[in-house]
Amino acid sequence: MGGYADLSLAEARRQAKELRARVALGAECRVQSAEKQECKAEALEKVEAAKNAYAVVQLANEYFTKIILGRWKQPNIVRSRIEKDIKPNIGKIPVEDVKPMDISGMLEAIVERGSPTVANEVLNACSTMPSSAMLSSSTRRRRLT
């Protein structure tokens, strides 16, 4: 309503009377509860979308099992890069939210620890993962239809 110096006693009483009348009619409560319900619904949608998001971890695991395993002589090298470098840095991020800065930060951390060759291997894996995901999603669509 206002501070002591901002509002006279008569004005404060008049405003209080108006607010009591609104509450008695229920107008304020209905508006607030509708806003609260909308906010709750939006929050639930966001939580549900986050649960259903296709994270980099899932993409990396799919990439390893479908592309690397059975084709490489030493698949454990790629598995090591995924487990040691990709999953800890960007594993929890949904695939559609990965930004070039995320990849760059991960590669810089690898180079800083003294492994520029490993950084190149991780970059190669990160660049081939999305194409493998597109291939597997298109085959999934064909199976569904």
Shape type: elongated
Q: What's the β-strand tally?
A: 0
Query: Approximately what portion of the residues adopt beta-strand conformation?
Result: under 5%
Give helix % range.
over 70%
> What is the number of helical segments per DSSP (H or I, 4+ residues)?
6
Q: What is the CA–CA distance across the termini?
A: 62 Å
Q: How many domains make up the 3D coordinates?
A: 2
Report the radius of gyration as a whole number of Å. 28 Å
CATH top level assignment of the largest domain: Mainly Alpha
Description:
The chain folds into two domains: 9-52; 56-144, Orthogonal Bundle (DNA polymerase, domain 1). It has 145 residues and is mostly helical. Helix content is 79%, strand content 0%. It is elongated, with a radius of gyration of 28 Å. Helix 3 runs antiparallel to helix 4 and helix 3 (56-68) packs across helix 6. The termini are far apart. It has six helices and no strands. The model is unreliable at 138-145 (pLDDT under 50).
Task: List the defining traits of the structure above.
Phage integrase central domain-containing protein, 2 domains, DNA-binding, Phage_Integrase, disordered C terminus, mainly alpha, DNA polymerase, domain 1, Phage_int_M, 145 residues, elongated
Report a brief summary of the structure.
The protein has helices spanning 9-25, 27-52, 56-68, 75-90, 100-112, 116-144. With 145 residues, the protein is mainly alpha-helical.
Topology:
Elements: H1 9-25, H2 27-52, H3 56-68, H4 75-90, H5 100-112, H6 116-144
Helix pairs in contact: 3-4, 3-6, 4-5, 4-6, 5-6
InterPro entries: DNA_brk_join_enz, Integrase_recombinase_N, Phage_int_M, Phage_Integrase
GO molecular function, one term: DNA binding
GO biological process, one term: DNA integration
